[in-house]
C-alpha cells in the first residue's frame, strides 16, 4: 500500500549513498580518532555539511571525522564487519539497501534520520512549458511516454553507485509496474520494456549526484536531470521541478550508530544526533543545503512547493533490488563505450603492473563482493584497451555480448593478465589516440587514464590540449577519468580531468582496484 505523505512529513528512504566525484576513503582533515572524536563512514553527499559539522565541536562537544566511500562498497564494509573498529557510525543517504545485505542488521544500532530529499525530475523552464508540465499533474507514465517519443533528454546517476539513481530507478519501476506493494522479480521482468522507453532519453550518467549536476551544467544539449530535489534547487540555472503524482522515493540520511562502537562513542553519537535535530540546526540544514527538515516545528520554505508526495514502495528482498540494478545495466540503459589508456612503462614493473592486472581482472567478474558485482563490464558494453609505454600500442577492442558474455570477459581477463612493463611514458600521444577513436552511435563514451609517472616521450600537455579543442563536439563530450598512481604529475593530471570534464581518482594511498571500481559508476 502506498502511503500519502505531506511535503513536511517524514518520508521513507531509498537505498545507497552517493559516490563522490573525486573518491577517497581517507578521512577529512583533522583528528582521526580520540575520546571526543566520532568516526563516521559517509557518502560524499554529506560533504556539504562539513562547515556545519565543524561547529559540532563547540556546540555539541563532538569532533566529527568523516571518511567517504562509495555506495555499495560502504554497505559491503558494514555488512562484512570490515568497518568494525574503523568507524563508530555511518551516514549514508539511506540504509534501505544496506539493511537487505546478509549480516547487516546485526552490525547496526541506533538510527537517527536527519533530513529529507525526494528524487524528482528537473527541467529547463522552457522545456517544461513546451511539455505542458508547469503546474499540471504529471505521472511517471507521462514522463516515460515523452521520453520514448524523444521529446526531452535527461541525466541521471548510475543506480549501482548513487542513491539518487537507484531511487529514481526504483520509483520509475514501481510506478510503471502498478505494483500494489514492494516490487518482486516478476514485476521487474514485466516492466523492463517500459523502462527501456524511459531510459532511451538518458544522455548523461554519473557516479554521484553532485558530479551529475556539474556535467549537466557543462552540456546545454541536455534538457534536465533526475536528481535529488536539493540538488535541483541548488542548480546553477533555475529548473522547473516536476513531482510525479504517482509517487517518489526519498532519502532520509540516517546517522547510524554501529553496534561495535565503544560506550564512549555511543555517548558522542547521542550528542551529535540530538544537536543535528535541534530546530536551529534543522533550519540551517534546510536553508544551506535545500533539504527538508525531518523534525516538526521548522516551517518549510516556499521553494519546496505545496505538492503532496506519495512514497513508492521499496523492494523488500535483496535479490529483487539486485535484479533491478542488473536489468538497468545490462538491458535498459544506453550502453557504455569505455576506453582504458594504461601506463605499462618500465616504472610499472613489479608490484605496480601486478596491481594493474588485478584491477582489470576484478572488472571481468572476479570481484564477487556486493560492490564488485555491479562494476563488472556490462552486456552490450564496448571496452577498448590502449596500453602505452614510449608510444601507444594498437587499441584492442572488446564488445561484451548481451547473451553469454563469459567468453569475452575471459578474453579481457587474459589480455589483462598478459600486460607487461617496459620503456618510456607517452601519456599525451596515447590519450590523443583514445580521443581520435569515434564514439559509437547510441553509446556513452568515457576514457580512463592510468599512469604512475610523468610524460617522458612524444607530445606534451599543451599539444594535447590544442588537439582536444580541435575535435568535433561529440568527441569533446567524452570525459577522461584520471587515476593517480605512483609518481603521477598531479597538477597535469588534474588539468586533463578539468579540460575534458572528467574527475581525478587517487589510488596512491588506496588501490587501483578500488579506484577502478569507483570509476565504473561514471561509465
Low-confidence segments, given as residue ranges, are 1-26
**Percentage of residues in DSSP E strands:** 15-25%
Summed over residues and divided by their number, the pLDDT gives a mean of 91
Count the DSSP helices. Answer: 20
Number of strands: 20
Structural class of the secondary structure composition? alpha/beta
Helix content: 25-40%
Tertiary shape: globular
Distance between the termini: 36 Å
Query: Strand count, sense and closure of the main sheet?
Result: 7 strands, mixed
Radius of gyration based on Cα positions:
23 Å
Outline the structure in words.
There is one protein chain. The protein has helices at 50-54, 56-60, 71-80, 104-107, 125-131, 140-148, 163-177, 185-199, 209-218, 229-233, 263-276, 279-289, 318-332, 351-366, 406-417, 427-435, 461-470, 473-476, 490-500, 512-520, and strands at residues 3-5, 37-42, 63-68, 89-91, 108-113, 115-123, 154-155, 202-204, 224-228, 240-242, 250-251, 254-258, 292-293, 309-311, 336-343, 382-388, 396-399, 444-451, 480-484, 503-506. With 523 residues, the protein is α/β, with parallel strands linked by helices. The strands form four sheets. Strands 6, 7, 8, 9, 10, 11 and 13 form a seven-stranded mixed beta sheet that branches. Helix 7 (163-177) crosses helix 8 (185-199). It is globular.
